[in-house]
Amino acid sequence: MQSCESSGDSANDPLSRGLRRRGQPRVVVIGAGLAGLAAAKALLEQGFTDVTVLEASTCIGGRVQSVKLGHATFELGATWIHGSHGNPIYHLAEANGLLEETTDGERSVGRISLYSKNGVACYLTNRGHRIPKDVVEEFSDLYNEVYNLTQEFFRHGKPVNAESQNSVGVFTREEVRNRIRDDPDDPEATKCLKLAMIQQYLKVESCESSSHSMDDVSLSAFGEWTEIPGAHHIIPSGFIRVVELLAEGIPAHVIQLGKPVRCVHWDQASARPRGPEIEPRGEGDHNLDAGEGGQGGEEPRGDGRDEDEQWPVLVECEDCEVIPADHVIVTVSLGVLKRQYTSFFRPGLPTEKVAAIHRLGIGTTDKIFLEFEEPFWGPECNSIQFVWEDEAESGTLTYPPELWYRKICGFDVLYPPERYGHVLSGWICGEEALVMEKCDDEAVAEICTEMLRQFTGNPNIPKPRRILRSAWGSNPYFRGSYSYTQVGSSGADVEKLAKPLPYTESSKLAQGSSSEQQPGHLLSSKCSEQSLDPNRGSIKPMQVLFSGEATHRKYYSTTHGALLSGQREAARLIEMYQDLFQQGT
């Protein structure tokens, strides 16, 4: 079994004693997305040498997934750098020349960023009619006025009335509807079109929030999300280039790919049974061949560790390897935490952290790329938006599985065509996106083509020559796209999710575990044949740290939020060990 060098604890000063003996704490980072790579890079740059990154999939990047087809790169995951002023992703990309090919048309400052700010969005109805440009502009102005009102509840402490159900969707829908109905100048036909457009706009908003519906998004917390000033940018060569830049400073042996984690056993040294007997390697050899997932040669114990000392954390992998550590930085998505928190941590998580996981939201936003031989849209068209006239009076948008396609809000035209060819990028979110993920490519391409024919009124639109789509909801390593503040949650829940374990006495929350958790603290049954010895010791601080976009209170759902959260957790450990490193240990 592959294993790692040992660390030490003592009743009086476990931190100092361990460092005096070994010189280095061991840190395991779970996940090689932006948060995990940012954390590992920051630790390595500050002199930490015993760092291991475990990535479940076969590639780095997490929810950054750039796919190259021909000469073009398509983003199945993160697409835009949102804002430039003080955005670390922007500065990293700019400093390395990744934005040099970005056209003026791709530098949009609009709230809803498309691939081009040139041209116009074509709003089409299911009857094959185009909504007049002046009607679209009037509605857009009205919707944006109401959108700005949704920000005031948090930013100005405005009370939320009962009618809104503390829901962005409910508030927006009713406020916009009332204003449309009260307008004395619009004829009834125009009012009907504008009422139908509400649902289309809310579908777009849901895709941006990665919620099933904007009805699920908290009105009182909505304004806490903070937009970084400046233009939105894409990276023509692929967002994955940012990931690769972060990884360049990390030695290859640090990152282990195809290494899913089954369970994090924490608080081992205080009152838990001792973990499995682990055959440690000699000093500095624990990552040998790790970049290939190989097993390094075993060496005699060389870390000066007492036989009765205990690791505070044991990271149990799916292949039954157990990696001991002083600290673990968990960067898995909120979707994975929701699905696996009862089995992923032993002992179970504190009650209030579990409650935060339940209250916060994460949904699925998927893209559908369609490539055509020739464009059937005009050169002035930058997107095709679907408006269902029969949804003018609808409430929450939830469709039966066979009507999943009605959740597609529209298709953006990828720009410029010289780079991408003739490609449309469709958007779908929520439960309907999960239904779409279960369909095969042929079925999705057929349905999308029929929709385009219906809404454009052009029955001669050919099927696309190629389709490419994402599947974030059904991917077991993500279980969703990104997080949002669900009705009933707030920024305080984000803080609780981010709080390291174990809690300190001064900030201790109820540490009762969920009734759903597994009893005891033994390894999972697949590895239960390994022996356990009892041992007690002192509690070591910050054994389990949490990062990832869902843990950033102001920038959740963004790539810069993910990167900053990884740096934040690394900074906790850097500060913790700063004095001891300065002593030259």
TrEMBL record:
Domain Amine oxidase: 34-268, 313-574
UniProt GO MF annotations: polyamine oxidase activity
Cofactor: FAD
Region (Disordered), start-end ranges: 271-308, 506-539
Keywords: FAD, Flavoprotein
One of the GO biological process terms: spermine catabolic process
Annotated protein name in UniProt: Spermine oxidase
Domain of life: Eukaryota
Biased composition (Basic and acidic residues): 274-289
Flavoprotein recorded as keyword: yes
Biased composition (Polar residues): 506-518
Record SUPFAM superfamilies: FAD-linked reductases, C-terminal domain, FAD/NAD(P)-binding domain
